[in-house]
Write a structure and sequence with these properties.
Layout: E1 3-11, E2 16-21, E3 27-33, E4 38-39, E5 45-46, H1 49-64, E6 69-78, E7 83-86, E8 92-93, H2 109-114, H3 118-125, H4 136-145, H5 147-150, E9 155-158, H6 159-168, E10 173-174, H7 175-178, E11 185-186, E12 191-192, H8 194-198, E13 206-207, E14 212-214, E15 225-227, E16 230-231, H9 232-244, E17 249-254, E18 258-262, H10 271-275, E19 278-282, E20 288-294, H11 296-311, H12 325-336, H13 363-384, E21 394-399, H14 405-414, E22 419-423, H15 428-435, E23 450-452
Parallel strand pairs: 1-6, 6-15, 6-16, 10-13, 17-21, 21-22
Antiparallel strand pairs: 1-2, 2-3, 4-5, 7-8, 7-9, 11-12, 14-15, 17-18, 18-20, 19-20, 22-23
Helix pairs in contact: 9-15, 11-13, 12-13, 13-14
Length: about 475
């Protein structure tokens, strides 16, 4: 008899993965691809969602033929802030817009002012003003700028639920996708914001993240339970919640974004936190997750590209640089004296990058200071989610930067009163999605190793008071 398995599509902005889990939550098979982007009608880059779905169905069909396991459940973990629109016949309408698409900030002012101004609107929706990253505003923009498409829209789906729809034919909405800086949800009244009904936006019924649908017969005649999907950041915290067993903790999930999450938050989001890029997410149990964000991976890559082109280095040169205490100490001292390399900590493109490379320094040293400046910026974002009076047992670090010793050692040193560690858990977003569709007869224990990160004790380090080189004080 073939062993039972769960399949999860983990769809990131760059990497698209299909992971197969056994009953011990070990990955026993996988497939991965990077797909070429297309452009929308304005020439802005966007996901080729039709190509993505073709790859997903093809890859899933391939894994269904395995002679080593039998897939009994499928789920989806996807990046947020992305919407798909359907007409009455269930056909996709319009472009699948990139959440980084640039639009006019002034355009949204009419909406904000109608509901009390930007500050009140932000407080009610528990999110900074982020244009298309507030994915609900994509609908508002489309209604007023793409009227020919908008008139055909019958329903709007969040990205994970569009994939659920393509595999089941069912339409649904999940609370984690609504609750990730969409500007759709009023956290004060725990329901859709008034503007949603006033603008006549239409979404399918909200269902529990453990809701199961049946797979389309045209994909397979095998019985496969299909989950409705989950927002990737919220998915990534699920394994840690299971392992922590109720003890308060923080999670730093790193990748293109560093998402810092506090699932034990009981208060309200302040205007000051909003102004420092904090927001509330909604967990699968509908409790609040206080989150802060920094586009660490993107900014890191932008400045590594600047360093590479300035000094004619190989691509991914930084992967071969090892932690050096002498470089680290010097970098810390230079930062304390205000001698920054990075002049714009929020550079998302090479055109926005502003840097000042000191003369006569090695590439190894320059990378140490560059990475330390980025980490200290990220630490300020972590501090934003630490609730006063709360004691945290652990800080977990996950994602790509767990391999970066400059990053991990700095986190452990600055937060030396809290145990900082990583777990031998890869692809936590996918694992979190798998936990939503676990068959009832499976044992739900996650086996993993913990690796504690020791703070640096033999260096003279004073945490510097930083000024964000984008002009915002973060001291």
């Amino acid at each position: 008899m073939l062993q039972e398995a769960i399949a999860v599509f983990d769809i990131g902005k760059t990497n698209k993965k299909l992971l197969i889990y056994n009953q011990q939550f070990q990955v026993i098979d996988h497939k991965e691809i990077k797909l070429k982007e297309k452009t929308d009608e304005d020439g802005s880059p966007c996901e080729d969602i039709d190509l993505l779905v073709i790859w997903m169905v093809s890859s899933f069909s391939e894994k269904l033929q395995s002679s080593k396991y039998r897939i009994v459940a499928l789920n989806f973990s996807c990046y947020g802030a992305s919407m798909v629109h359907l007409d009455q016949q269930g056909n996709r309408i319009g472009s699948f817009y990139n959440y980084l698409k640039q639009t006019s900030e002034n355009f949204y002012q009419t909406l904000y002012q109608k509901y009390g101004g930007t500050d009140l609107f932000s407080e009610q929706t528990a999110s900074p003003i982020l244009q298309f990253l507030n994915s609900g505003l994509q609908l508002y923009w489309m209604k007023h700028h793409r009227q020919n498409h908008w008139e055909e829209v019958a329903q709007s789906l969040h990205f994970p639920q569009y994939l659920f729809y393509k595999f089941t034919g069912l339409q649904a909405t999940d609370i984690t996708s609504i609750g990730c800086h969409t500007a759709l949800w009023d956290f004060k009244k725990d329901d859709y914001h008034q503007w949603v009904s006033d603008e006549e936006l239409s979404f399918p019924k909200i269902v529990n993240n453990r809701f199961i649908g049946s797979i389309k017969k045209e994909i397979t005649h095998q019985e496969v339970n299909v989950g409705i999907g989950i927002h990737d950041s919220t998915a990534s915290i699920q394994p840690y919640q299971k392992i922590s067993d109720g003890a308060p903790f923080l999670l730093i999930s790193t990748g293109t974004w560093a998402i810092n999450m506090n699932p034990n938050f009981n208060g309200d989001l302040s205007l000051s936190q909003l102004q420092n890029d904090c927001l509330l997410n909604i967990n699968t149990d509908r409790n609040k997750i206080l989150s802060s964000r920094y586009m660490l991976g993107r900014v890191h890559d932008v400045y590594c590209d600047c360093l590479r082109t300035s000094f004619d280095l190989e691509e991914s040169f930084y992967r071969f640089i090892r932690f050096n205490q002498e470089h680290y100490q010097k970098a810390w001292e230079e930062i304390n004296h205000g001698n920054y390399i990075i002049q714009n900590l929020n550079a998302y493109t090479e055109e926005e990058a502003k840097c000042n490379w000191p003369e006569g320094e090695s590439i190894e040293y320059l990378y140490h200071q560059l990475m330390l400046e980025l980490t200290l910026k990220e630490i300020d974002q972590v501090k934003e989610i630490m609730e006063e009076g709360q004691t945290y047992k652990k800080i977990y670090i996950s994602g790509g930067f767990v391999k970066n010793e400059i990053f991990t050692k700095t986190i452990a040193t600055v937060f030396k009163e809290i145990e900082v560690s990583t777990l031998s858990l890869d692809n936590t977003s996918a694992l979190g999605a798998a936990l939503m569709v676990v068959p009832s007869h499976w044992e739900q224990t996650i086996q993993c190793d913990e690796f504690k990160i020791a703070p640096l004790t033999n260096l003279e380090l004073d945490v510097p008071v930083l000024v964000d080189r984008a002009g915002i004080s973060i001291s």
